[in-house]
Specification:
The protein is an alpha+beta fold. It is 23% helix and 26% strand. The chain has a 4-stranded parallel beta sheet. Strands 7-8-12-11 form a 4-stranded antiparallel beta sheet, with no helix packed on it. The radius of gyration is 22 Å and the shape is elongated. 34% of the residues are buried.
Length: 282
Amino acid sequence: EGVEAAREAVPRSDSQIYSGLEFNFVNGCDTAENRCIISVVGPRVEVDYYSYSAWEALGLEEGELLGAYLQEYLSQALDWVQSQRPDVGPDRFIVGEFGFGRDLPYHGECLAAARTMLSIEALEDWGAHMGIYWQIVDNSLSSATTWSAYGLYKAEGTRSLTGDAVVSLYEEQAVSVQAYSGCPQISDDGIFDSGTLDQRIAPGDIVTIIGSDFSDSGNSVLFHQGTQRIRLAEGSTAWYESNHQINVQVPAEFSPGSNAIVYVTDADGIDSNGQIISLGTE
């Protein structure tokens, strides 16, 4: 009602004002016990747009199914809305947030870029009005966010592979879904105490990081805990590196009793997936 009143108050304005309803759950919203914004409120409000904060459809390890899940959830949302607003079509839907953290355990920079393009292709094919990528720049170095490496630009200012893919999208005006390869990858359970070979790790311990496609030299390792991010490289205590193994000391200033995220950046500036380590005491 407020939006309609504003339109009537300034009928000749060059500006446009729109209303929208955000929703972030679709799956399982069709039961009496689980009433959701999009299934209950969505069909009953005269908004201009419906905005899907799409994280539930994107948290998948099976990347090839990502586009299908995204389209399935959008189609279900559209069906609910059309039950009482049959004039509403896909072009009245926005994907208000989507993105892929390079530092997530099953991503890394290659998969983050590829899945971003898969998502954009799925949105175009489905007919959504627009998609809004999260986010332009990584969360700042003072941020306490757990998973933070979503940016088209990294916190250090360099462009990520996802950023390169989006630039290409604008230049070519076409979605290019390609298989990115050669990115560093930390193995599952690939971080452990170098001396005990145990995954019980404390601040100040020397750890071994096992993986693939690290650079022979010129790698760095980022440790992230709360508001602290510390990057270590050649010249650091106990440093050793090869294309499949890095040894490094966990920052002694980190707090025991809390988790930390670790990922590797190769000599070309490409980030691996992240792994969580649980920091105990000696």
